Amino acid sequence: MRWPTKNLGKERARKMANINAGVLSTGRAFPEGVLTNADLEMMVDTSDDWITTRTGIKQRHKAGEGEYTSLFAVRAARQAIERARIDPSEVDLLICATVTPDQLLPATACLIQAELGAHRAAAFDLVAACSGFIYGVTLANQMIRAKQARYALVIGAEILTRYVDYTDRTTCVIFGDGAGAAILGPVESERGILAARIRSDGRFAEQLHATGGGTRLGTTAQTLNSGLHFYKMRGNELFKVAVRSMTDISLEVLKEANLTPDDIHLFVPHQANQRITEAVADKLGVDSSRVFSNIAMHGNTSSASIPIALDECVETERLHDRDLVLMTSFGGGATWGAVLMRW
Ligand code: ACO
Fold first, then answer.
1. Domain 10-190 falls in which CATH fold?
2. How far away, in angstroms, is 330 Cα from ligand 1 center?
3. Which of 33, 80, 195, 255 has the most CB atoms in a 10 Å sphere around its CB?
4. Is the peptide bond before 97 cis (omega within 30 degrees of 0)?
5. What is the pLDDT of residue 240?
């Protein structure tokens, strides 16, 4: 894999009044364990046909005992750091987007920081469900542009299968585990992030939630027996909101950059459901040759899905120098966002 040298020299970046932030490199990692549709057929009342036609998913990764979120986050981050040809000590900002942290305290980002040796970074977790990576990139963009950070490491990492109830067929077929990471840094002003927007609406909170384990209900024998720490999702209610929100915010960032869907070389949406991807692409008028999808192999990996997708796009040479890339996401909260980037 060849990584373009988009990274600006320190002196040049310092002198430039208006710098853009861009993705300099990416990485990804998965647990070895895989759960296929055939495996799920033996666990709940479902079928390969239903899962494939309703979601596009064929398999998803599943962490084994002793595996945890930061393990994969660190692996993905190390790849991204090496490919950006920087030292971990040069990372100023480390954001770990996750809804499945290693532990309650401290932030998984701090555990990753220690493991990487990124000791100069400000490290924190970001909870925005499937939109976590887009939220993280949006914040990193502002920090780099404001010269508060030179290199930012944005990670999306999840072990969702720990919070999946394998008796609930409406959720257990969808979620998978994995991690993706990106190093962002200063790039020439005509490339990098051209526009980024994030939004949320807490009125949708109950459509996708896990109520057990927090300060409201705590962790008791009753919350555990009732499975309240598992994700509950009213997927069909979120479906329409997801399509509408991702379409609208994608059009907003395009408008802000004075561009149209025709200008997009590659559309990389959050991999929630193949039907959602197709509906958004259809509404935007982006034909299937310009849409990236890997949901068949990984399922919905929440905040990890877009950085994993970007890394696969680079590896398979779907992304070329100066391509216009549109990324958009929608997740529990509800949260959503879009980032438009000149690669
Ligand atoms: N196997 C077989 N049948 C099933 C399964 C299954 N795994 N799951 C549900 N069904 C049944 C339902 O019981 C229902 O049966 P009924 O008609 O007899 O009542 C029927 O299939 C249709 O159910 P719907 O929920 O309407 O199915 P839908 O086509 O909406 O697909 C899905 C469900 C895949 C969850 C879809 O709604 C979806 O992807 N929603 C979006 C989810 C999303 O975007 N979430 C936010 C991001 S994720 C995050 O933030 C972590």
1. Peroxisomal Thiolase; Chain A, domain 1 (3.40.47)
2. 16
3. 80
4. no
5. 96
